[in-house]
Design brief:
With 94 residues, this protein is an all-alpha fold. It is built from one helix and no strands.
């Protein structure tokens, strides 16, 4: 059976000087470089997203213009077709 006697808990002692364990200039420089890199990546991402959005708008406008042009051509070609009457079998008259 274990002894139920209480043993004192050791108290931690300060063996390291807290002023010498700071990140210092190297840590500050690493954080600044990381911050600049993240900001540049965000700006680049926004530029690329904007470019994709503009391309999609231009594609939609071109598709609408093409559909309108095709509709105009369809109505013009229907009006240009010769009228064929029943009983007209002569291909030279067409």
């Amino acid at each position: 059976m274990l002894a139920l006697t209480e043993t004192p808990m050791p108290t931690p002692t300060m063996t390291v000087n807290p002023d010498s364990v700071t990140p210092g200039f190297v840590g500050f420089a690493a954080v600044v470089i990381l911050l600049v890199a993240v900001i540049l990546l965000i700006l680049d991402m926004n530029r690329r997203i904007r470019r994709v959005r503009y391309r999609e708008e231009v594609r939609e406008e071109l598709d609408a213009e093409e559909a309108a042009r095709a509709a105009d051509e369809a109505t013009e070609t229907d009006a240009d077709l010769p009228i064929v009457r029943e009983g007209d079998d002569d291909p030279e008259k067409r």
